[in-house]
Specification:
Length: about 280
């Protein structure tokens, strides 16, 4: 691995982050989660991870193979972590970047999936993949539909399986596979994130240690007119969502996607009304 992923501080102008993503397909954003927020989130999920087994079942054998049996996962994070639901999900960094990348292509974007992935000793490198391939039926080329990231919740080093990225692969023709020297390793301090486009080839790295865990969280957003990878309404049901900030409710998909002003229609209505408004009015 010889390539270097560009590094940009989280408080840099959004245009700089967007330009980096557009040119390289991925950037490391330093200091996305402030130390205090990071520490509180880690403390909140410590006991959950302790009770989580890396051996679990998945919806089909291919997903089983993809994740392997050395990874402890927390899904439905908004329902299981108050700090995530109130502070990380609606973090202003993601709002500004998603506004710029996804905003032009939808009336509203939403959380696709947030998933803590604590990759344990012996975890093999994931298959190199593009996250947006979950929407394989979407014709190409297409506008950006996904903004993805992996937040380092501990210091990410190559030996514990820091994410690897093929820089520039968002522009490659389909089928081109990266050569080893085209892969860059997202080594970064805890609280930083590797942010990438849905079309950028990447993988969780191999954890070559015998006793260290690579705790990270995948968090990605998608245009509001595509189905999300995690069923966020069921993973964070209404009883939980009611207690979250309205912005988090919207990002979990409780808001309608209303494209009527640009000649489209609406999606996700309840009784022909916007669910997030019904929640606010105490009617849902
Ligand atoms: Fe991925």
């Amino acid at each position: 691995m010889t390539a270097d992923i560009p590094r940009i501080p989280a408080n840099a102008p959004t245009e700089q982050i967007v330009a980096g993503l557009s040119e390289h397909g991925a950037v490391i954003v330093e200091g996305v989660l402030a130390p205090d927020l990071l520490a509180r989130f880690n403390a909140e999920i410590d006991p959950i991870l302790e009770q989580t087994s890396p051996e679990r079942s998945y919806l089909n054998p291919l997903i089983d193979y993809f994740y392997g049996n050395r990874v402890r996962q927390i899904t439905g994070v908004a329902a299981r972590s108050r700090i995530f639901g109130e502070e990380i999900l609606c973090h202003p960094f993601y709002t500004t970047v998603c506004d710029a990348i996804l905003g032009p292509n939808c009336s509203r974007y939403q959380l696709n999936v947030a998933q803590v992935m604590d990759r344990g000793p012996g975890a093999e490198q994931q298959i190199l993949h593009r996250d947006e391939d979950v929407w394989v039926h979407l014709p190409r080329p297409h506008a950006e539909v996904q903004l993805a990231s992996v937040i380092a919740l501990v210091d990410f080093r190559a030996e514990i399986g820091a994410t690897v990225v093929a820089l520039g692969s968002h522009r490659w023709e389909r089928g081109r596979q990266p050569k080893p020297e085209e892969l860059a390793c997202a080594e970064m301090p805890a609280g930083s994130a590797v942010v990438y486009l849905g079309s950028t080839i990447h993988a969780g790295g191999r954890n070559a240690t015998s006793d260290r865990w690579r705790r990270g969280m995948h968090m990605s957003f998608v245009v509001g007119w595509l189905r999300t990878e995690e069923n966020n309404y069921l993973a964070t049901p209404l009883d939980v969502a009611r207690r979250l900030p309205r912005r988090s409710q919207e990002l979990l998909g409780y808001a309608a996607h209303d494209a009527i002003a640009v000649g489209g229609g609406y999606l996700g209505a309840v009784d022909l009304l916007d669910p997030v408004e019904l929640i606010a009015a105490g009617r849902l």
